[in-house]
Amino acid sequence: MSILVVGSIALDSVETSFGKVDDSPGGSALYFSAAASFYCPVNVVGVVGSDFDATHLSFLKKRAVNFDGLYVDSGETFRWGGRYHVDLNKRDTLFTFLNVFENFQPVIPRQYQDLEYVFLANIDPDLQLKVLDQIRKPGLVVLDTMNFWISGKLARLKEVIRRTNILILNDEETMELSGIPNLILAIKEIASWGPQALVVKKGQHGALLYHNDRFFFAPAYPLAKVVDPTGAGDSFAGGFLGYIAREGNLEDSTLRKAIIAGSTIASFTVEDFSFKKLIQLTPERLEERYAMFKDLTSF
Amino acid sequence: MSILVVGSIALDSVETSFGKVDDSPGGSALYFSAAASFYCPVNVVGVVGSDFDATHLSFLKKRAVNFDGLYVDSGETFRWGGRYHVDLNKRDTLFTFLNVFENFQPVIPRQYQDLEYVFLANIDPDLQLKVLDQIRKPGLVVLDTMNFWISGKLARLKEVIRRTNILILNDEETMELSGIPNLILAIKEIASWGPQALVVKKGQHGALLYHNDRFFFAPAYPLAKVVDPTGAGDSFAGGFLGYIAREGNLEDSTLRKAIIAGSTIASFTVEDFSFKKLIQLTPERLEERYAMFKDLTSF
User: Fold this and answer.
1) B154-163, pLDDT tens digit by residue?
2) Of the candidates A206, A214, A224, which has its C-beta nearest B185's C-beta?
3) Exposed, middle or buried: residue A77 (CB in 10 Å: 0-12, 13-18, 19+)?
4) Reduced to 3 states, what is the DSSP secondary structure of residue A7?
5) Which value does ipTM take for this structure?
6) Cβ of residue A84 closer than 8 Å to a chain B Cβ
7) Residue in B87, B182, B214 nearest the CB of A295
């Protein structure tokens, strides 16, 4: 099974206590694809400017990531700049230039309109709805969003959620979206709006799955060195949905393993800047770390 | 096997969004004992003032908690007052009156001096050293401390740590004590000072065990209602060491199950004020929730 992902493609300038990079490839659609492509083919819909160096995508093309839905507009590529604190949970955004992304209207190529697995990365809910309207028979819709849309476009976001099978949020967003300060109650409330499952990302504290009225908890992999957290969430989502698409079912045990797959990939992403680690990563190394989660949690 | 615990006995006044209590029994020695006594006999060394109502201890006495080491001084009992925010991870201390605790000098009754399992609750490292000097052949010393002693009495605290088998800290304290901002490296650094194992409490995010160069991660039980977090850490420690003392060995699988035992008890503690929930708790209910941790983490 292959996946459709609609999201951002960016050039990121990132500074952490381990160094800095300028205009490095990034964005939700690329981080998602880099992760998901370990499990199944991925089809990207997004936009870049005429300044975007196509060789940034070479490693993804080799891994069955298809870019027929990549539009090149005149103008500059979306750029984001951020500086992380020594406490990597905190960061300052230095700049956000939407550039060609500002007027992005996702057009799903005909050959993608029959795809069943859809990942709506964190973009404007209006655009997310437009994507869904172009899919003939969405089988599994996975949605990511952020506090910006929760506070700014709540009604439209709720429309997307009603058409979503699995919603991915972080813990703060979950409580903000539901208006409930207890995470567990907040999750149950949002699940009552329609999604079959919720995944709550807690960064260094792991991830929580709610499905079939059961909770599953996965820790983050214990890393002695986190170089750059950028892309952790999107590569988590990529490993998660990639695993599900490969297995082709929504059984609880599949979703649980998919959470571990996502956690595993994300643990590699943050070990270096941009895609440096994911470019080197092999399926064998991925499998090896996946297996270590058993040791990390069994008692 | 029975345990010796030396720590505070307090009257707490606590306010949370669910209500408030005044002068309710609390303190590290009592929370620890209430938890550990589900697994083995506990012997308390501590001090109260002449105002302390001995009936507060009745439920503990019924559970084989021995108070031969409880000293009653003229003066008032240690009092603490705090108010938790809606985000229960944040609290303001309203007052701390040490009262009789200010001049507490722990004297270990002769019949306790041969105990092998020792829990040094969070008190002045000078007092913790005095306790250790009175134990003939400590078999397993478990130590709790806090940032106040890390910043104020580091040299003495390190002396205690060198004589400690298992050190319990929270994540911030671990990084502060080691001076290393990465939790995993911080844990390994402190382990190199002597302790065989470290337990890092992460509150609502669970707990991490480091032992024999392996990590084990336990989530916090997903609670829809947390009424009062006071005592969570000490009852966690009580469940943890109680379980170990009952099993009588330090195998990795014992420590892992002990972490789950501690997490289970702590999840009950926070469901009501003071000891309300732990007083009602039965071994059957405890066992039932312990078992649910399997479902929460298996994949």
Assistant:
1) 999 999 999 9
2) A224
3) buried
4) coil
5) 0.92
6) no
7) B214
